[in-house]
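Morning!

This is the sequence you dropped in the shared folder:
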Amino acid sequence: MHVEVSWDGDERFKALTDSKFEVMIDRDLDKGPRPMEYILVGLGGCASVDMMSILKKARQDVTACVAVINAERADAVPAVFTKIHLTFKVTGRKLKPAAVERAARLSAEQYCSVSKMLEGGGVEISHAVEIIEAE
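The structure's back. Tokens below.
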């Protein structure tokens, strides 16, 4: 995996990913998210991919899946994450709560590389699920 990050003036940077996507990083937030926000985006994306893969294999009729992520950071520099909580809001038809909870647990405890990496750095990560019946 390879990424290039180039200074783009002031406190802005342009990142080019190995998969040829360009994203902006900006401390002042007028051109892009802050670096720590991207970590949460990575966590949410990784966990959501796992959730949907597991739920699809479990033959659950999912119509939407949203990962809501709240994080706390240390007061001192470096202001690392200390706690992160993911809530998966899963919408579908006749979803089995046990299957949805199992998917969240497997993602958190076994499959999500970002989650495992953060936990290895001392971040306390928790998760919950909300199941919403589709209309």
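Headline: The chain has a mean pLDDT of 96.

More detail when I'm at my desk.
O.
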